Amino acid sequence: MRAEETDVPRLPRGVKLKYDQVRARHVLLAPERAFDIDETAAAVLELVDGKRTCAEIVDALAARYDEKREVIADDVKDMIGGLIARRVIET
Fold first, then answer.
1. What is the CATH number of the domain that holds 45?
2. How far out from the chain centre does Cα 7 lie?
3. Number of separate domains in the chain
4. What are the two backbone dihedrals, phi and then psi, of residue 55, each rounded to the nearest 5 degrees?
5. 3-class DSSP state for residue 49?
6. What is the pLDDT of residues 23-65, one digit of tens each?
7. Is the distance from CB of 53 to CB of 6 less than 8 angstroms?
């Protein structure tokens, strides 16, 4: 599954992005599940607020990391789509 540019992703009720002090890394917590995520995924998930579209998330990341939009767009849409398939992001 792949997210579309116009999708507005959000974390469903009960799903939270947390920084685990013990492991010194971000974790995506969902009911009865936890996902270890890297810094790149955390940067994307910090922008998932139910207001921004995937296109706006890509634009914000491209500006933050001074990277061409087309370089990161596919990865962001694939990642969000994968998390939608696992039911830890909704659109």
1. 1.10.10.1150
2. 12
3. 1
4. -60, -40
5. coil
6. 889 999 999 999 999 999 999 999 999 999 999 999 999 999 9
7. yes
Question: If we measure between CA atoms, which residue out of 33, 41, 37 comes closest to residue 79?
Answer: 41
- Within-domain flag for 6: no
67 is in which domain, residue-wise? 16-85
Q: H or E segment at 57?
A: helix 54-64
11 located within any domain = no
Query: CA-CA distance, 69 to 58, in Å (whole number)?
Result: 7
- Under DSSP, the state recorded for 12 is P
Segments of 8-89 assigned E as strands: 16-20, 25-30, 33-36
Q: One-letter amino acid identity for 9?
A: P
pTM listed for this prediction: 0.90
In a domain, 1, yes or no: no
